[in-house]
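step: validate -> pass
step: tokenize input -> pass
step: predict -> running
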Amino acid sequence: FTLKSTYDDDLLHAPYKNNPTSFAYIHPDATKQWYPVGQADLRANGPNPWFTDIYGGNFNFQVLKFINIAVLSQGAYGTPDDNQIVFRLPDAILLRAEALADLGRNDDAITMLNLVRARAQAPLYHDGETQGYNLSDAIFLERCKELIGEGYYFYDLVRTKRILDSKFCKHPISAEAFAEGAWTWPISPNALVNNTGMTLNTYWQ
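step: predict -> pass
step: emit ->
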């Protein structure tokens, strides 16, 4: 992996890196949806939170979830060079919760969802919970919270079609654009030179 391939490289600043501010931040509309203000959650406001300035909407924001402990212990600045996260158990647990909910096995799905919530000391989900989110939504949002920075968010938006919904995606696409492949990378027509059997993404033509 290159140094810039790690998510946290753009979302850390001094004293963890040389730059005075982060190069990016997560919009507070998202962080407030994922971690409601004032709601208990070790990930957002515990003794060792994953973030700084979580609702600020500026470049003071950091994701501390992946801080390189070796660099910190040496008392030196450094670009994060930890191993890439490929799979974690909460991913499998929440995928199982999603599948169970799709099968109508809500009680089992809630049990799985609450395994992750309990670990974060966040409020447990109860069947029929309101607040504008059904069980399927709650599982999706838990994936946003727990797996932040691990490369799932965009693909979860696509897989669940929530990329069409402004409630979950700040810049949604239309159903027509989705069907035409707007969620994919464009493929250059030059690729047809070596592969005449390839079909280009309709949206990008």
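step: describe -> The first strand starts at residue 51 and ends at 52.
step: cleanup -> pass
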